[in-house]
């Protein structure tokens, strides 16, 4: 249930409500909005109806049930959009954020060259996988720690923030040490042990939608991270598997405004994995901005034909610079700024 406090409620009254919720077996989730404090009672509780008695507590304005299955990440509990903070970079606010870089970290030369190029074109975050969850065990699995160190070096050199994927619970601490944002890949969206572990990490998480996952499943996975203590979560639409084989995946564009309706979390679109084809990245990126995304994550490689993974969908630095010109124009139409 949601307990909306009066705008003049005191700290003692708020604490009293939290204590009552704990006594009923729920976990209080306090949201401090601009005007008032709203408290969510999360969990199973003792199954009794406490709404009536809570309504008569001093400082309480109203009590209503939460109907959405995802309680903490849903719009019912929190109407204000969440702004994820990565140091001084805000995602989900007025800025439109672009993350770009290679699919995998391959060599120092490849990463630094890409980092300099995407920085010059206006990206704010450098992407690059150090741990790669590949469909085939014979494919390149990533440079692991060596890759993390190269990413940290690129951040040092360019000032870009870093996003990289975490694949297992055991590696979480190590990846969190090096990276500014932790990416959960499509293949791990329902790795609940990993999601719970990420709930205890003090770094933002980009949660990619599983290739065969529904929007409800995506939001429930985000709920795992949030209820375990980390509310700095971003959702990523990266295309889903359909009967169509002409593209690598099918970009579910309508998911973007729908996620914005259902949840307060920022939404990022990955036009690279969503299409699998470099010529489609630019138009898909433009569509994502127009339909309400808060950011993009794009694969860029200085020599895509030599890439160790995802070459066909990687754009060249030159193409990326052209995409960024469009991003600035389209973002401005949506009253967002890029730099
Ligand atoms: C990636 O970002 O390179 C990646 C593996 O993406 P996804 O998990 O969406 O397939
Ligand atoms: Mn990739």
Question: How does this model look, in words?
Answer:
The chain is of the alpha/beta class. Helix content is 34%, strand content 18%. The chain contains 11 helices and 14 strands. The strands form 3 sheets. Strands 7-8-9-10-11-12-13-14 form an 8-stranded parallel barrel, surrounded by 6 helices. Strand 2 and strand 3 (37-42) form a beta hairpin. Helix 3 packs parallel to helix 4 (145-158) and helix 6 (192-198) packs across helix 7. The protein is elongated and about 65 Å long. It starts with a strand and ends in a 6-residue tail after the last helix. Bound molecules: phosphoenolpyruvate (PEP) and manganese (II) ion. The site of manganese (II) ion has 5 residues, from loops.
Small molecules held by this entry: phosphoenolpyruvate, manganese (II) ion
Radius of gyration in whole Å, from Cα? 21 Å
Q: Percent of residues in beta strands?
A: 15-25%
Ends: how far apart? 40 Å
Low-confidence stretches: none
Helix content: 25-40%
Total strand count, please? 14
Number of helices: 11
Structural class: alpha/beta
How do the SSEs run, as a string of H and E?
EHEEHEEEEHEHEHEHEHEHEHHEH
Biggest sheet character: 8 strands, parallel, barrel
Mean pLDDT, as a whole number? 96
Shape: elongated
Side-by-side strand order of the widest sheet:
7-8-9-10-11-12-13-14
């Amino acid at each position: 249930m949601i307990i909306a406090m009066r705008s003049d409620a005191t700290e003692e009254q708020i604490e009293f409500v939290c204590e009552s919720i704990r006594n009923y077996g729920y976990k209080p989730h306090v949201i401090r909005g601009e005007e008032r404090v709203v408290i969510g009672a999360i969990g199973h509780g003792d199954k009794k109806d406490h709404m009536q008695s809570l309504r008569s507590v001093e400082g309480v304005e109203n009590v209503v049930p939460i109907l959405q299955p995802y309680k903490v990440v849903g719009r019912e509990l929190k109407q204000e959009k969440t702004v994820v903070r990565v140091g001084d970079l805000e995602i989900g606010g007025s800025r439109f954020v672009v993350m770009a870089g290679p699919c995998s970290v391959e060599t120092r030369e490849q990463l630094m060259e890409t980092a300099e190029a995407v920085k010059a074109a206006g990206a704010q975050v450098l992407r690059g996988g150090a741990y790669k969850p590949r469909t085939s065990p014979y494919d390149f699995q990533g440079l692991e720690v060596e890759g993390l160190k190269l990413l940290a070096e690129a951040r040092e050199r360019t000032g870009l923030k870093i996003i990289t994927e975490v694949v297992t619970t055991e590696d979480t601490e190590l990846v969190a040490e090096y990276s500014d944002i932790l990416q959960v890949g499509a293949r791990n969206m329902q790795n609940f042990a990993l999601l719970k572990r990420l709930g205890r990490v003090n770094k933002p998480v980009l949660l990619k939608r599983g290739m065969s996952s529904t929007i409800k499943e995506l939001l429930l996975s985000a709920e795992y991270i949030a209820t375990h203590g980390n509310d700095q979560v971003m959702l990523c639409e990266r295309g889903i598997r359909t009967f169509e084989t002409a593209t690598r995946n099918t970009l579910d564009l309508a998911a973007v405004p729908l996620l914005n309706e259902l949840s307060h979390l920022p939404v990022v679109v990955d036009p690279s994995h969503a299409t699998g084809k470099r010529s489609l990245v630019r138009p898909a990126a433009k569509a994502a901005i127009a339909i309400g995304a808060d950011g993009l994550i794009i694969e860029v490689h200085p020599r895509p034909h030599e890439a160790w993974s995802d070459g066909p969908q990687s754009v060249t630095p030159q193409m990326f610079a052209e995409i960024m010109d469009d991003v600035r124009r389209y973002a401005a139409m949506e009253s967002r700024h890029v730099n």
